[in-house]
Amino acid sequence: MFRFLSGVLGSDVGIDLGTANTVVYVSGKGIVFNEPSCVAVRKRSKSGKVDIIAVGKEAKAMVGKTPIGVTTLQPLQDGVIANYDMTETMIRHFLIKIGGGTKLLSHPRVVISVPAEVTEVERRSVIDATLGAGAKEAYVVEEPIAAALGVGLPIQEPRGSMILDIGGGTSEVAILSMGGIVISNSLRAAGNDMDEAILAMLRQNHGLLIGESTAEEVKIAVGSALPLEDEKDIVVKGRDLANGLPKADTVSSVEVREAINPIILKIEDMVKVALEKTPPELSKDIVDQGIILSGGVSQLAGFAERLSRSLNAPVIVAEDPLLSVARGVGKILDNLDTMKKILMSVERGTR
Ligand SMILES: Nc1ncnc2c1ncn2[C@@H]1O[C@H](COP(=O)(O)OP(=O)(O)OP(=O)(O)O)[C@@H](O)[C@H]1O
Ligand SMILES: [Mg+2]
Prior knowledge:
Layout: H1 2-8, E1 13-17, E2 21-26, E3 30-36, E4 39-43, E5 50-55, H2 57-60, E6 70-73, E7 76-77, E8 80-81, H3 84-98, E9 109-114, H4 120-132, E10 137-142, H5 143-150, E11 161-166, E12 171-177, E13 180-187, H6 191-206, E14 208-209, H7 212-222, E15 233-240, E16 246-252, H8 253-277, H9 280-289, E17 291-294, H10 303-311, E18 315-317, H11 324-334, H12 336-342, E19 347-350
Parallel strand pairs: 1-9, 9-10, 11-17, 17-18
Antiparallel strand pairs: 1-2, 2-3, 4-5, 4-6, 7-8, 10-19, 11-12, 12-13, 14-15, 15-16
Helix pairs in contact: 3-4, 5-11, 6-7, 6-8
The site of magnesium ion (MG) has 6 residues, from loops.
């Protein structure tokens, strides 16, 4: 009866709980939500109690601009929960927001994605946070499986498919066949680390101190993985390290590329290790079908082409790469009863 009701109310929910962004799929509606995984809190000076003042987009807009007593935080780091209470709170706020402030989504069944190489404890903590946030049942699925389903790869067939997801905190690669992961590899470094590298480069080469949000803007505006036909310049504003005064300086796309290159090299190595371990019959399928690239960093200029050259295989950027995982989680959700049997990696936790 409950299951029937939850279906009617469209309250089954799929969540791609990412380090940088949370994307939510609601059964019968599709993707309804895509906001930064960010929370802003105010600490009461007397009691030390913490009040949530914003979540998602609103909280991200406050990063680096908060007054005394207010802080912004990303409760996930490197794809896993770093701050348990805040993750639970954030999920609860997102569910309320999606329900339009009503209790419609207060007890949904939830399928949530986790990086493939998480530990049992990390996996359990995602389930517990989801249940704690008000879910009636919680299931987890490995991100590469969700991403592959989301982009429509034929993962149930005895054919090799390769998916590479580069997000904010994790880079993951998986070779899938017959509904399961054959080989996977991951790196706890991705888009956020590129931002940090840009930040460090500006400090060192330009004596310019900037915030994380500005570093991300620079990466998106002029970042690249291969030399550009027309290299670009950008004016970056921040604080002069020498005298503490505001400063604006011109930075070139060449410098930005050099700064983020070490992270790209690490990603290439991670994929090479996975390819080396791949059975030859599946390698053949991958060359035929290509490597599918998802996650926000797949949009970095020249990234797909660079990977294609270094890995010697076609690389195809997924359509809407930021939404692949959530779409796949949605597919699992819409066929939960059959998927449960097929996907060994789906787990259940109940209240
Ligand atoms: N056009 C772009 N060029 C380069 N990087 C981009 C671009 N658009 C988004 N990004 C980066 O993609 C990252 C976010 O990607 P995504 O939403 O897939 O991550 P996530 O799923 O939250 O993280 P994870 O899967 O690692 O937990 C951020 O680092 C962001 O700066
Ligand atoms: Mg992700």
